């Protein structure tokens, strides 16, 4: 809705111009619009913040001092901050504006705040005011507003989280899927072991994590080394959804572009949705056709719900699809970073090997129960998550549902809030030697040995924190740690050439991946080829 002040300005000018031609009126309107755009833009944080302040300006309004931040450009604001490696650009802008605790910027008409400080991050993520997610057109088109990640904070979202926590992410369920993770680890080891030439690890890791999620969610088991049509189709659907959700959609922030769909995002979403619907509906129908009552996977769980928890078919599709979607790439991306660090730091790799030899021994494969007896490997995993959090901006932002105060600044309802976890985990005021890869900081008597990565300490919260913390965090970390242990137990990981060169450049999609996929050579460590624990 336009402001009274703006409308008044424009109509007053137009009424004065009756005597003029249509072209002159158009010029006057354009000039008025241009002038207003400049006025809005002049405000700290740029046009969206200026517009808000201008609209709300009244003698009674007490909005306090403005949040510092870059103005960007008139109308579009700081869209360029979100291009390419947004976490780097935002961190640099916050440093330049002296606004690491809290910075304001505009993405077109969207007001954004971002923090690079753990205390402010805690205030934001743990506040019920920020328990909602901002609307993204692609998320809505892809039905994610009916799944956990983008559902509005309320009864429906709470019900979904409760169901998922009880039947997919609870310790009993994670334990029950141990055998399937072990089977996939053995398949991966067999596939990697076949390579006599250097090879890329990413494709196999993505297949493995997709296969693991497919087992838990759909009860489907795909052989990693066989080309299964259904698995291939699903991979294509996940990749397309991943790309769509990871793309900054200009229409989300500049509503006047909405009708034009300049990046063809709407078109691609409407092509994808029927394919996803067909795929998931087919699997649901197969489950319904079963005669047994036994609950074997998450589809069975959703089908068994009764009363107020019962989901419609379309909601079920959204929930199932999201689980596959979220659980697949995050795990594969993190394992690739860990293996890259192992190649780059052979001394650290060799300490993990020593630990594996001591705890597991040469004669058998790793079991998940071995991980509890290991201290150094979990420290290595933590250190990699610290330097390469898969969601450097915590993947999905939060939305203020009411006016609130953050770090002493007034933040109006409807503001998008982000946490730059990447900047926090590299801040020398928060971490000693933050850019150095030092797993020892989390090991033994290390300064941060006891830190939890699950959201209680915002110095390292790669899974977010508060009500919308990642529900798959334990499953995700269990899978990552166990598969890394298995792969390191089986092989020594070496660089492509003898130079120990690994390119750690990043590319930010929905998760932050290695820009150049890791290419390695492996040498078998165990002579005994027992792939079972
Ligand atoms: C290494 C693995 C993973 C990482 C780093 C990760 C990270 C994250 C982050 C940062 C968030 C946003 C949290 C917030 O706003 O505070 C999130 C949300 C979410 N994650 Fe994960 N995740 C991982 C694995 C998984 C897995 C395995 C699943 C499911 C199978 C999953 C499902 C979800 C869902 C459904 C949400 C939305 C929660 C909500 O809005 O209520 N994640 N994840």
Give a structural overview:
- With 533 residues, the chain is of the alpha+beta class.
- The chain contains 20 helices and eleven strands.
- The chain has a four-stranded mixed sheet with strand order 1-2-7-4, with helices on one face. The chain has a three-stranded antiparallel sheet with strand order 3-11-8.
- Helix 10 runs antiparallel to helix 15 (313-344) and helix 15 packs across helix 18.
- The longest helix is centred in the middle third of the chain and has 32 residues, at 313-344.
- The radius of gyration is 26 Å and the shape is globular.
Give a nutshell description of this structure.
The chain is α+β, with helices and mostly antiparallel strands. The chain contains 20 helices and eleven strands.
What key attributes describe this structure?
globular, four-stranded mixed β-sheet, 11 strands, binds protoporphyrin IX containing FE, 533 residues, Cytochrome p450, three-stranded antiparallel β-sheet, alpha+beta, 20 helices
